[in-house]
Design goal:
Organism: Azospirillum lipoferum
Strand content: 5-15%
CATH superfamily: Spore Coat Polysaccharide Biosynthesis Protein SpsA, Chain A
Structural class: alpha/beta
Order of helices and strands: EEEHEHEHEHEEHHHHH
Protein name: NTP transferase domain-containing protein
CATH architecture: Alpha-Beta Complex
Keywords: Transferase
Shape: globular
Number of domains: 1
GO molecular function, one term: transferase activity
Length: about 250
């Protein structure tokens, strides 16, 4: 069998409800979206990266940012994120899709690479994710075959399944082969630093403040920093952890 074409698709729009325009907010001299896409593009095992955004004029700057980095863009309906992903996967000729979101500027290419490798080594599987209950929020990624994305786009009716893309798959364990989620290495979590308590995605101004500080602190001396480097910086600056501690993760409908 030919090697599958593995494509990462990220979603972004300017009209996020809690922090509009967040993906183009600046940090360390670049928009958050540029940090996200550049880091994602260094993922081992990836063949391409595509940004899925909307047809709204307000998202023209989002598309321009991605295209300026050489990242392909698919534009579709704002409300139908699942349809946008299916269109982006078709545009890129994907066989396997890695789903991420652009509100994760600190996404770790090595960790996403581990997810890809684990999925391929654990065949046959239909779905695998990074365990967001064990890792900091903001490192999230999922992988699944494009054929399931196409099936979901054709059949999903529930608004949550169209907005969040993958519930159509992981809500149906009787039909699809779901793998145990990727968890941290045993050595990754010191007793005084719970990874699951950390929040590195950007949904509210306090999240932006923390991520901005981490990028400014790490990039000058270590442009290829990973998630463990973020952990070390936060252990060196324990007060930073409190910046966004009160922010709550948005849940599915």
């Amino acid at each position: 069998m030919d090697k599958p074409r593995i494509v990462a698709i990220s979603q972004a729009r300017m009209t996020s409800t809690r922090l509009p325009g967040k993906v183009l907010m600046p940090a360390a001299g670049r928009p958050l979206l540029a940090h996200h896409l550049e880091r994602l593009s260094r993922t081992p095992g990836l063949d391409a990266v595509v940004l899925a955004t909307t047809v709204n004029a307000s998202d023209d700057p989002v598309a321009a940012c991605a295209q300026g980095l050489g990242v392909a863009v698919f534009r579709g309906d704002e409300q139908d994120v699942l349809g946008r992903f299916a269109g982006a996967a078709a545009l890129a000729g994907a066989d396997l899709v890695v789903r991420v979101t652009a509100d994760c500027p600190l996404i770790d290419p090595a960790l996403v690479g581990r997810l890809i490798a684990a999925f391929q080594e654990s065949q046959p599987l239909d779905y695998l994710s990074i365990d967001s209950t064990r890792f900091p929020r903001g490192l999230d990624a999922e992988i699944f075959p494009r054929r399931l994305l196409d099936e979901a786009a054709a059949n999903a009716i529930d608004p949550a399944e169209r907005e969040h893309v993958t519930p159509y798959i992981y809500r149906r364990p009787d039909r699809f082969r779901l793998g145990a989620a990727l968890v941290p290495d045993a050595s990754a979590e010191p007793a005084d630093f719970r990874l699951a308590d950390q929040r590195w995605c950007v949904d509210e101004p306090a999240d932006y403040e923390l991520v901005h500080r981490l990028l400014e602190a790490l990039l000058p001396s270590n442009p290829g920093f990973g998630w463990q480097d973020c952990c070390k910086t936060l252990r060196d600056h324990p007060d930073w952890v409190d910046i966004n501690r009160s922010v709550r993760q948005k849940t599915l409908h």
